[in-house]
Amino acid sequence: MNAVSLVQVKRSMRIDFLRLSATGKSSVWVIVLMPLLFVVMGMLGGDEMTTFGFAGSAVGVCGMFASMLPMIVASNEEMSGNSSMNGIIPATRLNQVLARYAFMIVVDILAALEAMVCLVLLLHFDEPPVTSLIGIGLSVLSAALFVGSLLMPLFYRFPATQAIGWGFGLLGLLCLVGFGLYRFVPQSAFLASKTSSLFTTHMGLILGIVAIVAVLICLCSFLISNRIYANKEL
Asked: Transmembrane segments in this chain: where (predicted)?
């Protein structure tokens, strides 16, 4: 990638950030600070279960915001009516798509780091803290990257409202398939228990494999989105 392409990607990422904050920068700050609010509430809680509950809520909010980033950006882009500007942005379509994926990855990394900070403030780990924190951070990052990669091509292919419906339908279908396998296939329960025991003993290896799979899915998603956007009439 040459210097011109880097400038185009940077410019497109800045535009996507403006679209993210199209409803007001205060709304972005609310999303960013909400996990820290759960941290404060957890610190004020009197028992360990309450603290764990708020810790899970903080991590969940971080992951949910990062996962929903494609939906937020695309919805704000459509509602503001400035999607036609994509045709006059001084950046190629490839670099526009690359910028949006780069923006998603940056937000996912920041969300994973925020989740780790929230847990440091709330919990005391039995294992070495670095190992546990890296594991949780990789889990949040991989999950957000996986969901975002599934959603992104839909928002390039369909209008935002239709893409949201297709996205939730796809995620719901994956959940139903997973539940059906666990409920009606006898071997799946055995495999789940084996995976759980392997996770406790080989957490780093398993999370590394999951992270690699998430990156490969993101790469495939990028290629699909780029193909759709290259043939899309602006």
From this structure: 28-46, 52-74, 101-125, 131-156, 163-185, 205-224
